[in-house]
Amino acid sequence: MVLIVTPLSRLADVIAEREPSHLITLLSPEEMIGTPEGIHPQRHLRLGVHDIAVPQSGFTAPTTQMVERIFEFARGWDAATPMVVHCWAGISRSTATAFAIACERNPRADEMALALAMRRASPSAFPNRRIVALADEILDRRGRMVHAVEAMGGNAFVVEGAPFELPARH
């Protein structure tokens, strides 16, 4: 099945239209939301993290433990129905998370092909480099994931991305 990436503003519509079984929320701790209607609380991973690529005082940076929690949570998804991944704008934290899950689910897939599939699906995708680097290390991809998202280039300047799908299996 598919991973659906969306900004927070479109989350309720995506849940109503696509009826996902699992949801990953990546928002700053002070903006964290409760579990939306239509999602079982045990199938909702809520991660309080700021959209930063380098640790900064006063901000919660992505960590190895956080990325490991994402992988553990995603392993509990049978892919029979969609999984939704969202952050504030649907551009950085959520796209990095969807890319990491796609790489973890496809250990032999070419990272560049996965990144380019994301670029085709979303001109605004700009995966959080720290999340990608941590996932790359955990999955022992030897820098290939980082290189692939760098090769995607910049994104179309937008305040918010549009919902898009990324196949979970390649």
Oligomer: single chain
Order of helices and strands: EHEEHEHHHHE
Supply the number of helical segments: 6
What is the total tally of β strands?
Answer: 5
Helix share bin? 25-40%
Number of structural domains: 1
| Alpha carbon gap, first and last residue | 10 Å
Main β sheet profile: 5 strands, mixed
Indicate the CATH class: Alpha Beta
CATH topology tier name: Protein-Tyrosine Phosphatase, Chain A
Shape: globular
Please tell me the overall pLDDT: 94
Structural class: alpha/beta
What is the second-level CATH architecture? Alpha-Beta Complex
**What is the spatial order of strands in the main beta sheet?**
3-2-4-1-5
Fraction in beta strands:
15-25%
> For the CA atoms, what is the radius of gyration?
14 Å
- Uncertain segments are none
Q: CATH homologous superfamily, by name?
A: Protein tyrosine phosphatase superfamily
Describe the structure.
This protein has helices spanning 11-18, 64-75, 93-105, 111-121, 129-138, 144-151; strands at 2-7, 22-27, 44-48, 83-87, 164-167. With 170 residues, it is of the alpha/beta class. It has one domain (2-167): Protein tyrosine phosphatase superfamily (Protein-Tyrosine Phosphatase, Chain A, Alpha-Beta Complex). It has a five-stranded mixed beta sheet, sandwiched between helices.
What labels describe this entry?
170 residues; alpha/beta; 5-stranded mixed beta sheet; 6 helices; 5 strands; globular
How is the topology of this model organized?
Elements: E1 2-7, H1 11-18, E2 22-27, E3 44-48, H2 64-75, E4 83-87, H3 93-105, H4 111-121, H5 129-138, H6 144-151, E5 164-167
Parallel strand pairs: 1-4, 2-3, 2-4
Antiparallel strand pairs: 1-5
Helix pairs in contact: 2-3, 3-4, 3-5, 4-6, 5-6
